[in-house]
Design brief:
Structural class: mainly alpha
Largest sheet: 2 strands, antiparallel
Strand order of the largest sheet: 1-2
Distance between the termini: 175 Å
Order of helices and strands: HHHHHHHHHHHHHHEHEHHHHHHHHHHHHH
Number of strands: 2
Helix content: over 70%
Strand content: under 5%
């Protein structure tokens, strides 16, 4: 109502202004803002900005005057109400006085009654305060007693060496009682002693850990030796099992119906599992018992001291130093494998792999350096065996050993070169000690050691002792050297990561036989063989070497785990062919020289005699006597096939010698009796070859007779009634294919009858010429035309 009235008054005032429309609009806005209680700041800024504040001041004053009249009217309206209120208060004054007197009386009565109660209450409050103090004192004493009990218990644990429990007591005191301890003296004592106790425990544990580090070095050494010994024993068992398996395969191959099968049960190898004793305690179970308690105790204590990470680093650094200084590889990494699996994070797998990589790098560098300096195959083999056993031992624990095996494979050629050099020296010494005499064996063990062990026997029947072998001491000596070479080569190649190594072993075995042994035998034949007995013994030895070489390749295949049928399928020619041919050529050459000594008796033959020598010429008888003696002696030493080849060569030489004599200047003329005498000689030689039939087959007998086919065909041609048939190609191919026309012409010229010459025709001018001589003349003429 008042606002509406005010607005009406302002409206009448505004309507009464006599200003222009713009000023009227501003005055209306200002008046409306003042009446509505709005913010006048914009109007004030605008007014002072225009420099005309009079209008604003005018309106403000007018508004104040208008409000004064309203206030006056409001005061008049409420005055009567105020007067009535004052009258009401005056009427209540008597009641207040009476209430005051009543309250005073009540207070007096309350004071008189409550005084004893107040004294009792004061006593109660005092008693409660004393009780509270006593309770606090008892709590403090109890707290101190508990603290002292923990302190006493910590001291007992320290004295007994139970550091973990001592630290737990100290931690409990520090976390649960330290701040609540009421005794400042006790609190200061605890604050001083707790760090000292922790320092003491840390020193004691570090000392125990240091002692363990010293002890584990010896343990690692023994542990590595044990691990490698176990790996060696396991390898030996595997070798024995493979040998039995190969024997069973061979038996199965040879006799399928007589196979024997057996189930071999082997005990569990506690050592070989690589994961024994997973509880991480003091012993690992089986053969790998070593104490890790001090290590784990130290680690646990440091974890309790919140020093676990620093102890891990401390442990890793110390083990790294031990690895570098001691280089106990096998035992060191067996221990680290156990710590990795049971140490609760003491060392990580990455750290173990880093240590292993460091060790492998150093080992490879050392091996490369040592192998480059070694000049003895045996030393290199020993190191290879040890390294391969190390690899087998640590591979069980998951360590990668391929780098080590690669180093061994890289020096394979050097090892075999050194081995070949050693064998060359041994073979040279063995050959130089040979006396070219048959070997005498008095006992069965000698026979087994020198014959059966190399499968040199020609029969399964054991001979009666003493027995004389057909070979000299060179054979078993060289066989031992070659067998040792094979075993060393297989030993180097096996367990090195390469499964199929027979081809490598065979390659170096071929080199040993073809380069070393063959060359040594050639040198022996060319320098040390000076007689027929020596040459015969060497040739016999070469025949035995053929059987020995078969054994060598079978033995290499057997040790390499290759079936014998596959090894036999890949066999090549006899590797000692050069020395074998040289031995037979040397024997043949010496026999030819001997025969040439007897063949000089050809000079004593009367080639123009008219008498046929009965029983053959002297030279042939001497030659045959020598050959018969030679055969009877050689049969005891030389194999039949060698003796056949040598005899054939000698007989062919005899034939060539006779033909050469007939064609040579020694013989000027030939009579029919001389030719028939040669025919008797060849018949004697033919009889000699026929007497060799006990050890010659029919085919071999025919081959032996072909050795003197040239002289036989020459004699047949000269004794034939139609020598001219020689020029007939068909007859020549069938009956005279071994003859040379130039030799035939020469011998035919010498065999012509002197009476048929140009000077002999005067006395027989009217007689008829002999048909044979006529045919011979025609042959000679035809051969001259051809030449």
């Amino acid at each position: 109502m008042q606002s509406a009235k005010g607005r009406r008054k302002v409206g009448s005032t505004t309507a009464g202004t006599g200003i222009d429309s713009a000023e009227k609009l501003d005055e209306l806005l200002i008046s409306s803002a003042i009446c509505n209680g709005e913010d006048l700041g914009p109007f004030v800024r605008k007014t002072f900005g225009t420099g005309k504040p009079e209008t604003l001041l005018h309106h403000l004053k007018f508004f104040a005057r208008s409000k004064e009249s309203e206030i006056e009217e409001v005061c008049k309206a409420h005055y009567q109400d105020f007067i009535h209120a004052v009258d009401d208060l005056k009427s209540l004054l008597s009641d207040v006085e009476s209430l005051k007197s009543a309250l005073s009386d009540s207070n007096s009565k309350l004071q008189s009654v409550a005084a004893p109660l107040l004294s009792s209450l004061d006593s109660l409050v005092e008693a409660q305060t004393v009780s509270k103090n006593v309770d606090l004192a008892i709590g403090a004493v109890t707290h101190c007693v508990r603290v002292m009990e923990l302190v006493s218990r910590a001291n007992q644990h320290l004295q007994s060496g139970n550091f973990y429990m001592a630290l737990k007591c100290v931690d409990s005191i520090e976390s649960d009682f330290m701040e609540k301890t009421p005794s400042s003296t006790l609190k200061r004592m605890l604050e001083n002693r707790i760090p000292a106790i922790r320092s003491y425990v840390e020193r004691k544990v570090n000392k125990e850990f240091g002692d363990w580090l010293v002890e584990i070095r010896v343990v690692s050494r023994n542990l590595g030796q044990l691990a490698i010994g176990e790996a060696s024993a396991a390898r030996q068992r595997e070798e024995e099992l493979r040998i039995k398996q190969r024997q069973a395969e061979e038996q199965s191959r040879l006799s399928l119906r007589d196979c024997v099968y057996a189930l071999n049960e082997e005990e569990d190898d506690e050592f070989g599992s690589g994961h024994e004793g997973s509880d991480g305690g003091s012993s690992g179970g089986g053969l790998l018992g070593f104490d890790l308690t001090p290590l784990y105790r130290a680690y646990h204590i440091h974890q309790t001291l919140s020093l676990g990470d620093s102890f891990k680093q401390y442990y890793y650094n110390n083990r790294d130093l031990q690895l570098t200084s001691d280089f106990q590889i096998a035992g060191f990494f067996i221990v680290e494998d156990r710590v990795l699996r049971t140490g609760g994070g003491l060392i990580s797998k990455l750290e173990v792999e880093t240590l292993w990589d460091t060790a492998v790098t150093k080992m490879c560098a050392v091996l490369e350096d040592q192998f480059s300096r070694m000049q003895t195959a045996n030393h290199l083999l020993l190191i290879k065996d040890y390294v391969s056993l190390l690899g087998v031992s640590l591979r069980r624990y998951g360590y990668a050993v391929d780098s080590l095996l690669e180093v061994l494979s890289k020096h394979r050629d050097k090892y075999h070169e050194l081995l070949l050099s050693d064998c060359r020296k041994q073979i040279t010494e063995a050959l130089s000690a040979d006396k070219f005499e048959q070997m005498l064996m008095k006992k069965e063990y000698e026979y087994s050691m020198n014959v059966l062990s190399f499968q040199l026997q020609t029969s399964d029947i054991v001979p009666a002792f003493p027995v004389i072998a057909p070979f000299s001491t060179t054979i078993p000596d060289c066989c031992r050297i070659v067998r040792s070479f094979i075993e060393d080569s297989v030993s180097f190649m096996s367990h090195g990561g390469q499964l199929d190594f027979y081809d490598v072993v065979k390659k170096y075995l071929d080199r040993l036989l073809g380069e070393v042994l063959d060359e040594a035998l050639l040198k022996l034949i060319n320098t040390s063989v000076h007689g027929v007995p020596q040459a015969m013994q060497v040739a016999a030895n070469m025949a035995v070497f053929e059987r020995a070489c078969d054994f060598f390749f079978r033995h290499a295949a057997h040790l390499s785990g290759v079936p014998l049928r596959m090894a036999e399928r890949g066999r090549r020619h006899f590797p000692l062919t050069k020395s074998q041919n040289a031995a037979e050529d040397t024997l043949s050459g010496m026999l030819k020289k001997k025969v040439d000594g007897f063949m000089t008796l050809l000079e004593n033959v009367n080639w123009t005699s008219d008498d046929i020598p009965q029983g053959g010429n002297e030279y042939m008888n001497e030659v045959l006597m020598y050959l018969e003696t030679l055969v009877s002696t050689a049969q005891q030493i030389l194999p039949a096939k060698v003796l056949k080849r040598v005899l054939r060569d000698v007989i062919a030489h005899i034939s060539e010698k006779i033909v050469g004599t007939l064609c040579g200047d020694l013989v000027k003329r030939l009579s029919m009796a001389a030719i028939k005498g040669l025919d008797v000689d060849i018949q004697l030689l033919d009889s000699f070859t026929e007497n060799l039939t006990p050890f010659l087959t029919d085919k071999e007998a025919r081959e032996m007779k072909k050795a003197f086919i040239e002289i036989r065909q020459m004699i047949n041609l000269l004794l034939s009634s139609h020598p001219e048939n020689f020029v007939n190609p068909v007859i020549r191919e069938r009956s005279y294919n071994a003859l040379d026309y130039r030799k035939v012409a020469t011998v035919s010229e010498k065999f012509r009858d002197p009476s048929d010459s140009i000077f002999g025709t005067f006395g027989t001018r009217g007689s008829r010429q002999n048909p044979k001589n006529k045919s011979l003349d025609a042959l000679i003429k035809r051969l001259k035309d051809v030449s």
